Amino acid sequence: QQTELISFLWTIKRDPPSYFFGTIHVPYTRVWDFIPENSKKAFHQSHTVYFELDLTDPYTISALTSCQLLPQGENLQDVLPRDIYRRLKQHLEYIKLMMPSWMTPDQRGKGLYADYLFNAIAGNWERKRPVWVMLMVNSLTEVDIKSRGVPVLDLYLAQEAEQLRKETGAVEKVEEQCHPLNGLNFSQV
User: Fold this and answer.
1) Where does this chain mainly localize (predicted)?
2) Among 81, 119, 134, 161, which residue carries the largest CB count within 10 Å?
3) Tens-digit pLDDT profile for the chain (189 aa)?
């Protein structure tokens, strides 16, 4: 019941009020029915919406892609132990083989195919830093693949905000997320 849902919406009492709502990076369809009406109402009543990052900005996407890469001339094979690299390569080959069976008819109907999706997610994996490869591998599951094509909650809300002609912005820059992750040493990853 909507009335029984716990709200993760904080209100900053001022005139007009401000709200703070924490999102999660999962396809919005997984959580949308569990978001209380007070949170949805606050979103719709707001004139300006700020997100963690501006996922509708091409620069943000480009910068996120660039920050994941190892320095020029380095490859993952150079930085991972041989056995881990070999197991990773075998696992990605297995994923590529399995992905066609994981795709939904709805995804195929929208022109989303396994080879395209695999390349979109794992393309250039040999040039990525280990922490980003770890995050990539964690997203290469049957459940996650079946939900590809559905925007994550942040992106869905950003697209809704644009469609509703709300002013939007971001509270972080890509570099503020990228540098701490890239600063992790191999044992931390």
Assistant:
1) membrane
2) 161
3) 555 556 678 889 999 889 999 887 888 988 999 898 989 999 999 999 999 998 888 899 899 989 999 999 999 999 999 999 999 999 999 999 999 999 999 888 888 889 999 998 998 999 999 999 999 999 899 988 998 888 889 999 999 999 999 999 999 999 998 889 888 887 777
